Amino acid sequence: MEVIGITGGIASGKSLVTKQLKLMGYQVIDTDEISHHILEDQGVINELTDTFGNEILEQGKVNRKALGNIIFRNKDKQLLLNKIIHPRVIDVVKKELHEVINDIVFVDVPLLYESGMESMMDKVIVISASLDTQILRLVNRDNIERDYAIDKINMQMPLQEKSKLADFIIDNNGSIEDTL
């Protein structure tokens, strides 16, 4: 089995690519989905409220937007969150990889290099977009201010660095058709 990691920056177009791969019949393990499930675990919720306070909760559940407002403007707090979430995500990905029956599986990992998961991949594809494109997409998608979009982008490893480490790069600055 070949394990291919898909990564890129926020709003670079990973979802577009992984959606197409699924339509083509490939299995895609989505670490964002996994992390959303992890955020529903009561033990994780307790650990997060101990670390970030009860202001991240809404009706007993983690409000991802409130948590984002804390971590996307403070690198130290982002690192604390990553120490809580990443090991759990990695454990689930390993379990899911053991259950794969296909010859090729894709793993969508936005923070692939930041989490150290590149060692689990046979190849890595980076979905790349210009900073201006990312900002525009993020502002429109999340209905946020430009400065906050820039803060969110700057909390991740720069796409240029990810691209240098990748086996393949998909440029997603053009049309959807060009990307696909």
How would you state the average pLDDT, rounded?
Answer: 95
Beta fraction of the residues?
15-25%
- Give the number of DSSP strands: 7
Order of H and E elements: EHEHHEEHHEHEHHHEH
What structural class do helix, strand and pairing data support? alpha/beta
Quaternary structure annotation: single chain
What labels describe this entry?
five-stranded parallel sheet, globular, 10 helices, two-stranded antiparallel sheet, alpha/beta, single chain, 7 strands, 180 residues
Please characterize this protein's 3D structure.
This protein is of the alpha/beta class and 180 residues long. The protein has 10 helices and 7 strands. The strands form 2 sheets. Strands 2-5-1-6-7 form a 5-stranded parallel sheet, sandwiched between helices. The model has no long low-confidence stretch (mean pLDDT 95).
Please write out the topology.
Elements: E1 2-8, H1 14-23, E2 27-30, H2 31-38, H3 42-52, E3 57-58, E4 61-62, H4 64-71, H5 75-98, E5 104-108, H6 112-115, E6 123-128, H7 131-142, H8 146-154, H9 159-165, E7 168-171, H10 176-179
Parallel strand pairs: 1-5, 1-6, 2-5, 6-7
Antiparallel strand pairs: 3-4
